[in-house]
Amino acid sequence: MLKIEHLAWSIPGGEEIIKDIDVTVPEGKLIVVTGPNGGGKTTLAKLIAGIESPSKGKIIFDGEDITGLDVTERAQKGLAYAFQQPVRFKGLTVRDLLELAAGGKLPEEKLCALLGQVGLCANEYIDREMNTSLSGGESKRIEIATVLARQAKLSIFDEPEAGIDLWSFSRLVETFQNLRRQGNGTLLVISHQERILSIADEIIVIADGRVRMIGPGKEVLPQLLADERAARCPLGKEELE
Amino acid sequence: MNKITEELLRVVSDFKGSFEGAFNIREDGGCAGRQSTKNIQITSKKDLPGIDIHIAPGTKGETVYIPACVTHSDVDDLVYNDFYVGEGADVVIVAGCGVHSDGEEEARHNGIHRFFVKKGAHVVYREKHLGTGKGNGARRIDPITDVYLEEGSSLEMDTVQLGGVDRTTRKTSGVVGARARLVVRERLMTDGEEFARTDFDVTMEGEDCGVDLMSRSVAKGHSHQEFYSCIKGNARCTGHSECDAILSENGTVVAQPALEANHIDASLIHEAAIGKIAGEQILKLRTLGLTEQEAEARIVEGFLK
Hints:
The complex is a heterodimer.
Chain A: E1 2-10, E2 16-25, E3 30-34, H1 41-49, E4 56-61, E5 64-65, H2 71-76, E6 79-82, H3 94-102, H4 108-116, H5 122-125, H6 136-150, E7 154-158, H7 166-182, E8 186-190, H8 194-197, E9 202-207, E10 210-216, H9 217-232, H10 234-240
Parallel strand pairs in A: 3-8, 3-9, 6-7, 7-8
Antiparallel strand pairs in A: 1-2, 1-4, 4-5, 9-10
Chain B: H1 3-12, E1 23-27, E2 30-35, E3 40-44, E4 50-55, E5 60-65, E6 68-70, E7 75-85, E8 90-94, E9 97-100, E10 107-117, E11 122-132, E12 139-141, E13 144-149, E14 154-161, E15 167-176, E16 181-190, E17 195-204, E18 209-219, E19 224-233, E20 237-247, E21 252-261, E22 266-275, H2 279-287, H3 292-303
Parallel strand pairs in B: 1-6, 4-7, 5-8, 6-9, 7-10, 8-11, 9-11, 10-12, 10-13, 11-14, 12-15, 13-15, 14-16, 15-17, 16-18, 17-19, 18-20, 19-21, 20-22
Antiparallel strand pairs in B: 1-2, 3-4
Helix pairs in contact in B: 2-3
Protein backbone atom coordinates (compact mmCIF):
# COMPACT_ATOMS: atom_id res chain seq x y z
CA MET A 1 0.00 0.00 0.00
CA LEU A 2 2.93 2.32 0.71
CA LYS A 3 6.35 1.77 -0.76
CA ILE A 4 9.26 4.04 0.03
CA GLU A 5 12.22 3.65 -2.26
CA HIS A 6 15.66 5.03 -1.38
CA LEU A 7 14.28 8.19 0.14
CA ALA A 8 16.67 11.01 1.13
CA TRP A 9 16.19 14.52 2.47
CA SER A 10 18.54 17.25 3.70
CA ILE A 11 17.96 20.47 5.62
CA PRO A 12 18.16 23.14 2.88
CA GLY A 13 21.86 23.91 2.61
CA GLY A 14 22.67 21.64 5.51
CA GLU A 15 22.80 18.23 7.09
CA GLU A 16 21.31 15.12 5.54
CA ILE A 17 18.54 13.95 7.89
CA ILE A 18 17.07 11.08 5.85
CA LYS A 19 19.92 9.22 4.17
CA ASP A 20 18.43 6.19 2.47
CA ILE A 21 15.12 4.75 3.58
CA ASP A 22 13.62 1.83 1.77
CA VAL A 23 10.52 0.25 3.32
CA THR A 24 7.21 -1.30 2.33
CA VAL A 25 4.14 -0.79 4.51
CA PRO A 26 1.56 -3.56 4.12
CA GLU A 27 -2.16 -2.74 3.85
CA GLY A 28 -4.47 -2.85 6.87
CA LYS A 29 -1.67 -3.14 9.41
CA LEU A 30 -0.54 -1.09 12.37
CA ILE A 31 3.04 -0.06 11.79
CA VAL A 32 4.97 1.72 14.53
CA VAL A 33 8.01 3.78 13.65
CA THR A 34 10.38 4.33 16.53
CA GLY A 35 13.99 5.24 17.16
CA PRO A 36 16.14 7.85 18.88
CA ASN A 37 15.27 11.57 18.85
CA GLY A 38 16.66 13.35 15.82
CA GLY A 39 16.86 10.10 13.85
CA GLY A 40 14.48 11.31 11.12
CA LYS A 41 11.08 9.85 12.12
CA THR A 42 9.06 13.07 11.92
CA THR A 43 10.85 14.05 8.71
CA LEU A 44 9.91 10.70 7.20
CA ALA A 45 6.25 11.28 8.17
CA LYS A 46 6.35 14.77 6.62
CA LEU A 47 7.88 13.40 3.45
CA ILE A 48 5.07 10.84 3.16
CA ALA A 49 2.40 13.51 3.78
CA GLY A 50 3.98 15.87 1.23
CA ILE A 51 4.90 18.57 3.73
CA GLU A 52 8.56 18.14 2.73
CA SER A 53 9.90 17.07 -0.66
CA PRO A 54 12.63 14.45 -0.88
CA SER A 55 15.97 15.17 -2.53
CA LYS A 56 16.08 11.59 -3.79
CA GLY A 57 13.86 8.55 -3.94
CA LYS A 58 10.23 7.73 -4.58
CA ILE A 59 7.02 7.32 -2.62
CA ILE A 60 4.51 4.87 -4.11
CA PHE A 61 1.01 4.96 -2.58
CA ASP A 62 -1.60 2.46 -3.69
CA GLY A 63 0.48 1.64 -6.75
CA GLU A 64 0.84 5.29 -7.79
CA ASP A 65 3.99 7.39 -7.64
CA ILE A 66 2.95 10.35 -5.44
CA THR A 67 6.44 11.84 -5.03
CA GLY A 68 5.52 14.87 -7.16
CA LEU A 69 2.11 15.47 -5.59
CA ASP A 70 1.51 18.27 -3.09
CA VAL A 71 -0.08 18.02 0.38
CA THR A 72 -3.65 18.62 -0.86
CA GLU A 73 -3.38 16.08 -3.68
CA ARG A 74 -1.99 13.43 -1.35
CA ALA A 75 -4.75 14.13 1.20
CA GLN A 76 -7.36 13.79 -1.54
CA LYS A 77 -5.86 10.42 -2.49
CA GLY A 78 -6.48 9.14 1.03
CA LEU A 79 -3.48 10.10 3.11
CA ALA A 80 -4.04 11.62 6.56
CA TYR A 81 -1.48 13.16 8.89
CA ALA A 82 -1.81 14.05 12.57
CA PHE A 83 0.61 16.81 13.55
CA GLN A 84 2.87 16.30 16.53
CA GLN A 85 2.13 19.88 17.61
CA PRO A 86 -1.57 20.63 17.03
CA VAL A 87 -2.34 23.81 15.11
CA ARG A 88 -4.58 26.38 16.83
CA PHE A 89 -7.22 28.43 15.03
CA LYS A 90 -9.02 31.52 16.25
CA GLY A 91 -12.54 31.08 15.00
CA LEU A 92 -12.63 27.47 13.83
CA THR A 93 -14.48 25.21 16.23
CA VAL A 94 -13.86 21.56 16.93
CA ARG A 95 -16.99 20.79 14.90
CA ASP A 96 -15.69 22.87 11.96
CA LEU A 97 -12.42 20.96 11.89
CA LEU A 98 -14.01 17.54 12.23
CA GLU A 99 -16.48 18.36 9.44
CA LEU A 100 -13.72 19.69 7.19
CA ALA A 101 -11.83 16.47 7.85
CA ALA A 102 -14.87 14.29 7.12
CA GLY A 103 -15.68 16.31 4.00
CA GLY A 104 -19.23 17.23 5.04
CA LYS A 105 -21.71 17.77 7.86
CA LEU A 106 -21.56 15.27 10.69
CA PRO A 107 -24.52 14.25 12.87
CA GLU A 108 -24.15 14.73 16.62
CA GLU A 109 -23.76 11.00 17.28
CA LYS A 110 -20.86 10.76 14.83
CA LEU A 111 -19.14 13.79 16.42
CA CYS A 112 -19.71 12.18 19.79
CA ALA A 113 -18.21 8.89 18.62
CA LEU A 114 -15.14 10.58 17.10
CA LEU A 115 -14.36 12.58 20.22
CA GLY A 116 -15.16 9.56 22.41
CA GLN A 117 -12.40 7.67 20.60
CA VAL A 118 -9.88 10.14 22.00
CA GLY A 119 -11.49 10.29 25.43
CA LEU A 120 -13.34 13.61 25.09
CA CYS A 121 -16.99 14.32 25.79
CA ALA A 122 -18.51 15.87 22.66
CA ASN A 123 -20.98 18.15 24.46
CA GLU A 124 -18.16 20.01 26.15
CA TYR A 125 -16.04 20.46 23.05
CA ILE A 126 -17.87 20.52 19.72
CA ASP A 127 -18.66 24.22 19.75
CA ARG A 128 -15.41 25.36 21.35
CA GLU A 129 -12.86 27.13 19.23
CA MET A 130 -9.65 25.23 18.54
CA ASN A 131 -7.70 28.07 20.17
CA THR A 132 -5.29 28.51 23.05
CA SER A 133 -8.09 28.15 25.61
CA LEU A 134 -7.76 24.38 25.10
CA SER A 135 -5.01 22.65 27.03
CA GLY A 136 -2.13 20.94 25.20
CA GLY A 137 -3.65 17.53 25.87
CA GLU A 138 -7.12 18.55 24.73
CA SER A 139 -5.90 20.05 21.48
CA LYS A 140 -3.71 17.01 20.84
CA ARG A 141 -6.68 14.69 21.21
CA ILE A 142 -8.76 16.86 18.88
CA GLU A 143 -5.92 16.80 16.36
CA ILE A 144 -5.99 12.99 16.47
CA ALA A 145 -9.80 13.03 16.10
CA THR A 146 -9.50 15.11 12.90
CA VAL A 147 -7.42 12.32 11.41
CA LEU A 148 -9.82 9.61 12.60
CA ALA A 149 -12.66 11.60 10.99
CA ARG A 150 -11.02 11.31 7.61
CA GLN A 151 -11.27 7.49 7.48
CA ALA A 152 -8.24 7.61 5.25
CA LYS A 153 -6.51 4.73 3.49
CA LEU A 154 -3.31 5.60 5.34
CA SER A 155 -3.28 7.56 8.61
CA ILE A 156 -0.01 8.83 10.04
CA PHE A 157 0.17 9.83 13.70
CA ASP A 158 3.28 11.65 14.87
CA GLU A 159 3.82 10.85 18.57
CA PRO A 160 0.12 10.69 19.48
CA GLU A 161 1.02 10.09 23.10
CA ALA A 162 2.85 13.42 23.53
CA GLY A 163 1.06 15.64 26.01
CA ILE A 164 -1.95 13.46 26.77
CA ASP A 165 -2.83 12.01 30.15
CA LEU A 166 -2.64 8.33 31.07
CA TRP A 167 -6.38 7.69 30.89
CA SER A 168 -6.75 9.26 27.47
CA PHE A 169 -3.67 7.41 26.31
CA SER A 170 -5.25 4.06 27.27
CA ARG A 171 -8.35 5.06 25.32
CA LEU A 172 -6.19 5.95 22.34
CA VAL A 173 -4.39 2.60 22.40
CA GLU A 174 -7.81 0.90 22.39
CA THR A 175 -8.84 3.07 19.44
CA PHE A 176 -5.77 2.04 17.44
CA GLN A 177 -6.49 -1.60 18.25
CA ASN A 178 -10.13 -1.24 17.17
CA LEU A 179 -9.19 0.46 13.94
CA ARG A 180 -6.78 -2.31 13.12
CA ARG A 181 -9.36 -4.97 14.02
CA GLN A 182 -11.96 -3.34 11.79
CA GLY A 183 -9.42 -3.14 8.98
CA ASN A 184 -10.19 0.57 8.50
CA GLY A 185 -7.11 1.58 6.61
CA THR A 186 -3.44 1.36 7.42
CA LEU A 187 -1.99 3.07 10.49
CA LEU A 188 1.53 4.43 10.68
CA VAL A 189 2.29 5.61 14.21
CA ILE A 190 5.49 7.30 15.31
CA SER A 191 5.93 6.46 18.97
CA HIS A 192 8.31 5.65 21.78
CA GLN A 193 5.60 4.21 24.00
CA GLU A 194 5.96 0.56 24.90
CA ARG A 195 2.16 0.14 24.96
CA ILE A 196 1.89 1.30 21.37
CA LEU A 197 4.94 -0.71 20.32
CA SER A 198 3.37 -3.77 21.96
CA ILE A 199 0.30 -3.65 19.67
CA ALA A 200 2.30 -3.08 16.46
CA ASP A 201 2.04 -5.59 13.64
CA GLU A 202 5.36 -4.34 12.46
CA ILE A 203 8.03 -2.10 13.97
CA ILE A 204 10.43 0.04 11.98
CA VAL A 205 13.40 1.46 13.87
CA ILE A 206 14.81 4.59 12.26
CA ALA A 207 18.15 5.92 13.41
CA ASP A 208 20.61 8.28 11.81
CA GLY A 209 18.40 8.66 8.74
CA ARG A 210 18.27 4.95 7.93
CA VAL A 211 16.22 1.88 8.80
CA ARG A 212 18.15 0.21 11.59
CA MET A 213 15.71 -2.62 12.17
CA ILE A 214 12.42 -3.77 10.69
CA GLY A 215 10.24 -6.76 11.42
CA PRO A 216 7.18 -8.13 13.18
CA GLY A 217 6.42 -6.37 16.47
CA LYS A 218 6.77 -9.57 18.45
CA GLU A 219 10.35 -9.98 17.25
CA VAL A 220 11.58 -6.40 17.26
CA LEU A 221 10.11 -5.21 20.57
CA PRO A 222 12.00 -7.69 22.82
CA GLN A 223 15.25 -6.65 21.16
CA LEU A 224 14.47 -2.96 21.70
CA LEU A 225 13.68 -3.56 25.36
CA ALA A 226 16.86 -5.58 25.81
CA ASP A 227 18.91 -2.82 24.17
CA GLU A 228 17.27 -0.24 26.41
CA ARG A 229 18.12 -2.23 29.51
CA ALA A 230 21.68 -2.65 28.28
CA ALA A 231 22.14 1.03 27.66
CA ARG A 232 20.98 2.00 31.11
CA CYS A 233 22.00 -0.87 33.30
CA PRO A 234 24.53 -3.53 32.29
CA LEU A 235 23.71 -5.52 35.41
CA GLY A 236 20.07 -5.73 34.38
CA LYS A 237 21.09 -7.05 31.00
CA GLU A 238 23.02 -9.84 32.70
CA GLU A 239 19.96 -10.77 34.72
CA LEU A 240 17.88 -10.94 31.56
CA GLU A 241 20.38 -13.21 29.94
CA MET B 1 -40.19 51.01 0.62
CA ASN B 2 -38.26 50.36 -2.57
CA LYS B 3 -36.69 47.09 -3.80
CA ILE B 4 -33.13 48.08 -2.90
CA THR B 5 -34.18 48.81 0.67
CA GLU B 6 -35.87 45.42 0.87
CA GLU B 7 -32.74 43.66 -0.36
CA LEU B 8 -30.49 45.57 2.03
CA LEU B 9 -32.84 44.85 4.94
CA ARG B 10 -32.72 41.13 4.26
CA VAL B 11 -28.95 41.17 4.76
CA VAL B 12 -28.48 43.74 7.51
CA SER B 13 -31.47 43.07 9.75
CA ASP B 14 -32.81 39.57 9.02
CA PHE B 15 -35.85 41.07 7.25
CA LYS B 16 -38.22 38.39 5.94
CA GLY B 17 -40.87 40.57 4.29
CA SER B 18 -42.05 42.04 7.59
CA PHE B 19 -40.89 42.69 11.14
CA GLU B 20 -42.60 41.40 14.23
CA GLY B 21 -42.93 43.77 17.14
CA ALA B 22 -41.62 47.33 17.26
CA PHE B 23 -39.71 48.72 14.28
CA ASN B 24 -38.75 51.84 12.40
CA ILE B 25 -37.39 51.65 8.85
CA ARG B 26 -35.41 54.64 7.66
CA GLU B 27 -35.02 54.99 3.89
CA ASP B 28 -33.00 57.82 2.28
CA GLY B 29 -33.58 60.06 5.26
CA GLY B 30 -37.34 59.42 5.48
CA CYS B 31 -39.51 56.94 7.35
CA ALA B 32 -40.61 53.89 5.33
CA GLY B 33 -42.52 52.20 8.14
CA ARG B 34 -42.95 52.29 11.90
CA GLN B 35 -44.70 50.30 14.56
CA SER B 36 -44.75 50.66 18.33
CA THR B 37 -45.88 48.03 20.80
CA LYS B 38 -47.42 48.30 24.25
CA ASN B 39 -43.98 48.17 25.86
CA ILE B 40 -41.87 49.80 23.18
CA GLN B 41 -42.86 53.27 22.00
CA ILE B 42 -41.13 54.85 19.00
CA THR B 43 -41.62 58.59 18.45
CA SER B 44 -40.04 61.15 16.14
CA LYS B 45 -37.69 63.69 17.64
CA LYS B 46 -39.00 67.23 17.55
CA ASP B 47 -35.75 69.18 17.22
CA LEU B 48 -33.50 66.76 15.30
CA PRO B 49 -33.87 64.09 12.63
CA GLY B 50 -34.34 60.72 14.30
CA ILE B 51 -36.38 58.88 16.88
CA ASP B 52 -36.71 58.19 20.58
CA ILE B 53 -37.30 54.60 21.59
CA HIS B 54 -38.76 54.13 25.06
CA ILE B 55 -38.68 50.60 26.39
CA ALA B 56 -40.90 50.13 29.45
CA PRO B 57 -39.39 48.80 32.69
CA GLY B 58 -39.58 45.02 32.94
CA THR B 59 -40.09 44.43 29.17
CA LYS B 60 -38.83 40.94 28.41
CA GLY B 61 -38.11 39.04 25.23
CA GLU B 62 -39.03 41.75 22.69
CA THR B 63 -36.93 42.77 19.69
CA VAL B 64 -36.81 46.28 18.20
CA TYR B 65 -35.68 46.75 14.60
CA ILE B 66 -34.41 50.16 13.51
CA PRO B 67 -32.63 49.58 10.19
CA ALA B 68 -31.56 52.47 7.97
CA CYS B 69 -30.88 52.34 4.24
CA VAL B 70 -29.49 54.73 1.70
CA THR B 71 -30.47 53.50 -1.76
CA HIS B 72 -28.79 55.94 -4.14
CA SER B 73 -25.88 58.35 -4.40
CA ASP B 74 -25.92 62.01 -3.41
CA VAL B 75 -27.55 61.31 -0.05
CA ASP B 76 -25.98 62.40 3.22
CA ASP B 77 -28.24 61.01 5.90
CA LEU B 78 -27.72 62.04 9.52
CA VAL B 79 -29.92 60.56 12.23
CA TYR B 80 -30.10 60.69 16.02
CA ASN B 81 -31.67 57.69 17.70
CA ASP B 82 -31.97 57.57 21.49
CA PHE B 83 -32.88 54.42 23.39
CA TYR B 84 -34.27 54.63 26.90
CA VAL B 85 -34.25 51.12 28.33
CA GLY B 86 -36.34 50.82 31.49
CA GLU B 87 -35.31 49.15 34.72
CA GLY B 88 -35.09 45.38 34.55
CA ALA B 89 -35.92 45.17 30.83
CA ASP B 90 -34.32 42.46 28.70
CA VAL B 91 -34.50 43.21 24.97
CA VAL B 92 -32.76 42.82 21.61
CA ILE B 93 -32.15 45.84 19.39
CA VAL B 94 -31.29 45.28 15.71
CA ALA B 95 -29.92 48.28 13.84
CA GLY B 96 -28.61 47.27 10.44
CA CYS B 97 -27.44 49.81 7.93
CA GLY B 98 -27.15 49.37 4.17
CA VAL B 99 -25.81 51.89 1.69
CA HIS B 100 -26.32 51.39 -2.04
CA SER B 101 -24.85 53.57 -4.75
CA ASP B 102 -24.92 53.22 -8.52
CA GLY B 103 -24.00 56.86 -9.10
CA GLU B 104 -20.95 59.09 -9.03
CA GLU B 105 -21.80 61.02 -5.87
CA GLU B 106 -21.23 59.91 -2.32
CA ALA B 107 -23.90 57.97 -0.40
CA ARG B 108 -23.53 58.32 3.36
CA HIS B 109 -25.34 57.28 6.48
CA ASN B 110 -24.31 58.67 9.82
CA GLY B 111 -26.27 57.18 12.69
CA ILE B 112 -25.78 58.56 16.18
CA HIS B 113 -27.17 56.11 18.69
CA ARG B 114 -27.36 56.70 22.41
CA PHE B 115 -28.37 54.03 24.90
CA PHE B 116 -29.54 54.96 28.40
CA VAL B 117 -29.79 51.63 30.15
CA LYS B 118 -31.47 51.70 33.55
CA LYS B 119 -30.70 49.62 36.61
CA GLY B 120 -30.63 45.87 36.05
CA ALA B 121 -31.63 46.03 32.37
CA HIS B 122 -29.99 43.87 29.71
CA VAL B 123 -29.66 44.78 26.05
CA VAL B 124 -28.33 42.82 23.11
CA TYR B 125 -27.52 45.32 20.36
CA ARG B 126 -26.76 44.03 16.87
CA GLU B 127 -25.67 46.15 13.95
CA LYS B 128 -24.60 44.96 10.53
CA HIS B 129 -23.23 47.30 7.87
CA LEU B 130 -23.16 46.67 4.14
CA GLY B 131 -22.34 48.63 1.00
CA THR B 132 -23.66 47.58 -2.43
CA GLY B 133 -23.94 48.95 -5.98
CA LYS B 134 -21.55 49.57 -8.83
CA GLY B 135 -21.29 53.36 -8.80
CA ASN B 136 -18.02 55.22 -8.29
CA GLY B 137 -19.57 57.33 -5.54
CA ALA B 138 -18.17 56.38 -2.15
CA ARG B 139 -20.39 54.40 0.22
CA ARG B 140 -19.85 55.70 3.73
CA ILE B 141 -21.23 54.61 7.07
CA ASP B 142 -20.07 56.51 10.13
CA PRO B 143 -21.87 55.26 13.21
CA ILE B 144 -21.50 56.79 16.65
CA THR B 145 -22.65 54.72 19.59
CA ASP B 146 -22.77 56.11 23.13
CA VAL B 147 -23.71 53.78 25.95
CA TYR B 148 -24.61 54.78 29.52
CA LEU B 149 -25.00 51.81 31.82
CA GLU B 150 -26.59 52.21 35.23
CA GLU B 151 -26.02 49.93 38.21
CA GLY B 152 -26.20 46.21 37.45
CA SER B 153 -27.18 46.68 33.81
CA SER B 154 -25.48 45.23 30.76
CA LEU B 155 -25.20 45.75 27.03
CA GLU B 156 -23.73 43.33 24.51
CA MET B 157 -22.98 44.91 21.17
CA ASP B 158 -22.29 42.87 18.05
CA THR B 159 -21.11 44.96 15.15
CA VAL B 160 -20.35 43.49 11.74
CA GLN B 161 -19.16 45.03 8.49
CA LEU B 162 -18.13 42.52 5.88
CA GLY B 163 -17.82 44.44 2.66
CA GLY B 164 -18.70 47.17 0.25
CA VAL B 165 -18.32 50.17 2.55
CA ASP B 166 -15.63 52.46 1.12
CA ARG B 167 -15.03 54.56 4.19
CA THR B 168 -16.17 54.11 7.74
CA THR B 169 -15.32 55.68 11.06
CA ARG B 170 -16.97 53.88 13.92
CA LYS B 171 -16.93 55.57 17.29
CA THR B 172 -18.17 53.76 20.34
CA SER B 173 -18.05 55.20 23.82
CA GLY B 174 -19.37 53.98 27.13
CA VAL B 175 -19.76 54.97 30.75
CA VAL B 176 -20.18 51.92 32.92
CA GLY B 177 -21.78 52.08 36.36
CA ALA B 178 -21.45 49.83 39.40
CA ARG B 179 -21.69 46.12 38.67
CA ALA B 180 -22.64 46.90 35.08
CA ARG B 181 -21.06 45.20 32.10
CA LEU B 182 -20.34 46.25 28.54
CA VAL B 183 -19.34 43.70 25.92
CA VAL B 184 -18.46 44.77 22.37
CA ARG B 185 -17.68 42.30 19.59
CA GLU B 186 -16.58 43.81 16.31
CA ARG B 187 -16.00 41.93 13.04
CA LEU B 188 -14.70 43.81 10.09
CA MET B 189 -13.48 43.01 6.61
CA THR B 190 -12.13 45.52 4.12
CA ASP B 191 -10.98 45.04 0.54
CA GLY B 192 -9.93 47.12 -2.48
CA GLU B 193 -9.20 50.70 -1.45
CA GLU B 194 -11.54 50.68 1.55
CA PHE B 195 -10.73 52.44 4.79
CA ALA B 196 -12.11 51.60 8.21
CA ARG B 197 -11.38 53.27 11.51
CA THR B 198 -12.60 52.05 14.89
CA ASP B 199 -12.54 54.15 18.05
CA PHE B 200 -13.47 52.70 21.41
CA ASP B 201 -13.48 54.90 24.47
CA VAL B 202 -14.93 53.39 27.60
CA THR B 203 -14.82 54.65 31.17
CA MET B 204 -15.53 52.33 34.05
CA GLU B 205 -16.90 54.50 36.83
CA GLY B 206 -18.67 52.11 39.21
CA GLU B 207 -17.39 49.48 41.62
CA ASP B 208 -17.05 45.95 40.22
CA CYS B 209 -18.07 46.83 36.70
CA GLY B 210 -16.49 45.27 33.62
CA VAL B 211 -15.76 45.86 29.97
CA ASP B 212 -14.82 43.37 27.28
CA LEU B 213 -13.93 44.64 23.79
CA MET B 214 -13.11 42.15 21.04
CA SER B 215 -12.23 43.16 17.52
CA ARG B 216 -11.46 40.74 14.71
CA SER B 217 -10.69 42.08 11.30
CA VAL B 218 -9.33 41.13 7.91
CA ALA B 219 -7.64 43.71 5.66
CA LYS B 220 -7.43 42.57 2.02
CA GLY B 221 -6.50 44.24 -1.27
CA HIS B 222 -5.05 47.70 -0.65
CA SER B 223 -7.42 48.45 2.21
CA HIS B 224 -6.36 50.15 5.41
CA GLN B 225 -7.73 49.81 8.92
CA GLU B 226 -7.08 51.72 12.10
CA PHE B 227 -8.03 50.53 15.55
CA TYR B 228 -7.86 52.84 18.55
CA SER B 229 -9.18 51.91 21.95
CA CYS B 230 -8.96 53.41 25.39
CA ILE B 231 -10.31 51.72 28.48
CA LYS B 232 -10.27 53.78 31.66
CA GLY B 233 -10.72 52.21 35.08
CA ASN B 234 -11.75 54.75 37.71
CA ALA B 235 -12.89 52.21 40.32
CA ARG B 236 -12.41 48.57 41.28
CA CYS B 237 -13.17 47.02 37.91
CA THR B 238 -11.98 44.67 35.17
CA GLY B 239 -11.33 45.67 31.59
CA HIS B 240 -10.19 43.52 28.70
CA SER B 241 -9.65 44.37 25.07
CA GLU B 242 -8.47 42.12 22.29
CA CYS B 243 -7.65 43.15 18.77
CA ASP B 244 -6.80 40.52 16.15
CA ALA B 245 -6.22 41.40 12.55
CA ILE B 246 -5.37 39.23 9.56
CA LEU B 247 -3.48 40.83 6.72
CA SER B 248 -3.98 39.63 3.18
CA GLU B 249 -2.42 40.85 -0.09
CA ASN B 250 -1.46 44.50 0.51
CA GLY B 251 -3.82 45.28 3.39
CA THR B 252 -2.45 47.39 6.25
CA VAL B 253 -3.55 47.79 9.85
CA VAL B 254 -2.67 50.20 12.65
CA ALA B 255 -3.64 49.21 16.19
CA GLN B 256 -3.18 51.56 19.11
CA PRO B 257 -4.79 50.21 22.22
CA ALA B 258 -4.57 52.24 25.42
CA LEU B 259 -5.33 51.39 29.03
CA GLU B 260 -5.73 53.93 31.79
CA ALA B 261 -5.91 52.70 35.39
CA ASN B 262 -6.90 55.42 37.85
CA HIS B 263 -7.66 53.15 40.80
CA ILE B 264 -5.49 50.66 42.66
CA ASP B 265 -8.00 47.85 42.05
CA ALA B 266 -8.56 48.53 38.38
CA SER B 267 -7.42 45.44 36.49
CA LEU B 268 -6.95 46.07 32.77
CA ILE B 269 -5.63 43.80 30.03
CA HIS B 270 -5.04 44.29 26.34
CA GLU B 271 -4.11 41.67 23.77
CA ALA B 272 -3.29 42.47 20.16
CA ALA B 273 -2.08 40.43 17.22
CA ILE B 274 -1.66 41.46 13.59
CA GLY B 275 -0.27 39.27 10.86
CA LYS B 276 -1.00 37.14 7.85
CA ILE B 277 -2.61 33.72 8.24
CA ALA B 278 -0.13 31.37 9.89
CA GLY B 279 1.39 28.97 7.35
CA GLU B 280 0.79 26.02 9.64
CA GLN B 281 -2.96 26.76 9.71
CA ILE B 282 -3.11 26.56 5.92
CA LEU B 283 -0.98 23.43 5.99
CA LYS B 284 -3.26 21.73 8.50
CA LEU B 285 -6.34 22.35 6.34
CA ARG B 286 -4.45 21.20 3.26
CA THR B 287 -3.74 17.89 5.01
CA LEU B 288 -7.53 17.61 5.29
CA GLY B 289 -7.81 17.88 1.50
CA LEU B 290 -8.44 21.62 1.01
CA THR B 291 -6.50 23.63 -1.55
CA GLU B 292 -4.47 26.62 -0.34
CA GLN B 293 -7.19 29.06 -1.52
CA GLU B 294 -9.97 27.01 0.09
CA ALA B 295 -8.00 26.83 3.33
CA GLU B 296 -7.47 30.62 3.41
CA ALA B 297 -11.13 31.30 2.72
CA ARG B 298 -12.24 28.87 5.44
CA ILE B 299 -9.84 30.36 8.00
CA VAL B 300 -11.10 33.89 7.28
CA GLU B 301 -14.73 32.74 7.39
CA GLY B 302 -14.21 31.10 10.78
CA PHE B 303 -12.26 34.07 12.12
CA LEU B 304 -15.07 36.49 11.26
CA LYS B 305 -17.93 34.18 12.14
